[in-house]
Design brief:
Blueprint (H helix, E strand, L loop, with lengths): L1 E4 L3 E4 L3 H12 L6 E11 L3 E11 L4 E10 L5 H23 L5 H4 L2 E7 L13 H10 L3 E3 L5 H11 L1
Parallel strand pairs: 3-6, 6-7
Antiparallel strand pairs: 1-2, 3-4, 4-5
Amino acid sequence: MAFQSQTYGKLSIRNIPEKIMDYVRRMDRYDAPFQITVGTDSQNFSDTKIVSVIAVTCEGHGGIFFYEISRIRRIADVRLKLTEETTRSLEIMTSLVEELEKEEYREIRNKLSLAIHVDASWNDHGKTKELIPGLIGWIRACGYDCKVKPESYAASSIADRISK
């Protein structure tokens, strides 16, 4: 997986924990909670452009993020798109957690809460409302917290902006 960062340039998933550790060390003086969120959004063009984001925040003090862009054959069905987005978010979180479990990141591991952000809404007029309970159950069964709109900023704000 090749990620981009406006601050650090091109990175592999293996390099991101080092940047997270540097960020946590810099921001630790605020004694505020840290969260890693992974969210994915997609947009249809002639194909489907998929953007996955890893966001690291220090509550009340900003954050950093990394993103990956890929393109696949066009997915027209909203259920399939949301399933693809959630699958990618879970795969990225799993890979990131595997890296963070290495000994060199032991000092920061317990400071980080983990969540998956889904670009779905409880809005009665939306197409995704009925899918949310299943997606939340799936993500929580994998061991992560789950947020949907309007709290799912990694997917519905950061990834959404890059995907357009």
